[in-house]
């Protein structure tokens, strides 16, 4: 059976390969046992069935006691009874034992009352789970959804792919809708929308983080380009001023000293022109501005990252709290 299921999955996966190339394959799973334990109607009916099963067990114990008493009585009185009476007692014991086995099979056998009533009890809920799973798969574009409690072996399953709580909510909603008026129904739909957003929060946070990273990279490239353009503009301005100064000096007949650096070999010290010193001061200011801009960008990115992590942590905590509240309510 498992081989057939795995073969079916491989065929389905192969058929969706082309589609998966345009977008990632979306996979989820449910835990049928967990869902059944958290559906109030099922748990109530299950408790009633367990009470019946307990009563049947008591009846089985009573019949066992009858057989045990008959055997002990025969053992104690056997020396006083005739052969015909002993045979009659043994036949009675055999009849009681046969009746006991028949009753056990009737109540607890593979096709007994307990197995049949369990199947009848679970069938409507399983149908609801199937319908709810289909709705979730179509609404949220899932490619595959598996049942963790089935014969299919799942060696590992990440919790973020578990949609069991979503299935429980869908089943609970359909039950509540029949009991709510228009105003209550509107409030319930708003609450459902928030819960659905909480389910998609981890994926949304990852997407937002990726968008923020791309935006930060884009902003850095733009800032670097602006800085390079500003440096080029300043250099051009300096060159233009120098040319104008040389032109004015020529008109007045004044010799303009060349803008060079001379090195004295005697004391190995540099003699730098005033224009070069001014340019170095401007370059130092530009370096400081770049460092400040880079520091500011790093601070903004760190704050955004922390805010995203806080939002993600809060969403996970809210989900866990809601889950614990449901478990407490179910208990």
UniProtKB/TrEMBL annotation:
Compositionally biased spans, kind Basic and acidic residues: 184-196, 204-217, 245-254, 261-270, 277-331
Signal peptide stretch: 1-20
Domain of life of the native organism: Bacteria
Keyword Transmembrane: no
Coiled-coil region(s): 39-106
InterPro entries assigned to the protein according to its UniProt record, in alphabetical order: Chaperone_Skp, Skp_dom_sf
Pfam families assigned to the protein according to its UniProt record, in alphabetical order: OmpH (PF03938)
This protein's UniProt keywords: Coiled coil, Signal
SUPFAM superfamilies: OmpH-like (SSF111384)
GO terms under biological process: protein stabilization
Record region (Disordered): 179-217, 245-331
One Gene Ontology CC term in the entry: cytosol
One GO MF term attached to the UniProt entry: unfolded protein binding
Family: Belongs to the Skp family.
Protein name: Outer membrane chaperone Skp
């Amino acid at each position: 059976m498992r081989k057939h299921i795995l073969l079916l999955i491989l065929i389905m996966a192969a058929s969706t390969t082309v589609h998966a190339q345009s977008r990632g394959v979306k996979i989820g799973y449910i835990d049928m046992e967990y869902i059944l334990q958290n559906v109030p109607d099922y748990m109530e009916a299950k408790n009633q069935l367990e009470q019946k099963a307990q009563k049947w067990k008591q009846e089985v114990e009573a019949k066992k006691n009858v057989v045990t008493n008959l055997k002990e009585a025969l053992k104690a009185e056997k020396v006083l009874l005739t052969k015909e009476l002993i045979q009659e007692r043994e036949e009675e014991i055999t009849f009681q034992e046969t009746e006991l086995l028949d009753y056990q099979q009737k109540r607890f056998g593979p096709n007994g009352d307990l197995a049949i009533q369990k199947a009848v009890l679970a069938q409507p809920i399983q149908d609801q789970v199937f319908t709810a799973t289909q709705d979730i798969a179509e609404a949220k574009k899932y490619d595959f959804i598996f049942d963790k409690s089935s014969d299919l072996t799942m060696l590992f399953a990440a919790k973020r792919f578990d949609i069991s709580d979503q299935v429980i909510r869908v089943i609970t909603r359909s039950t509540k809708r029949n009991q709510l008026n228009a105003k209550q129904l509107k409030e319930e739909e708003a609450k459902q929308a928030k819960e659905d957003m909480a389910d998609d929060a981890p994926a949304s946070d990852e997407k937002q983080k990726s968008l923020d990273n791309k935006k930060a990279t884009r902003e850095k490239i733009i800032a670097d380009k602006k800085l390079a353009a500003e440096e080029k503009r300043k250099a051009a301005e300096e060159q233009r001023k120098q040319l104008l100064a040389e032109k004015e000096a020529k008109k007045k007949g004044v010799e303009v000293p060349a803008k060079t650096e001379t090195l004295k070999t005697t004391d190995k010290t540099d003699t730098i022109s005033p224009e070069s010193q001014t340019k170095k001061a401007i370059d130092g200011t530009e370096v400081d501005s770049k460092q400040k801009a880079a520091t500011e960008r790093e601070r903004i990115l760190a704050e955004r990252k922390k805010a995203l992590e806080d939002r993600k942590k809060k969403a996970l905590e809210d989900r866990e709290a809601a889950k614990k509240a449901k478990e407490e309510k179910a208990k």
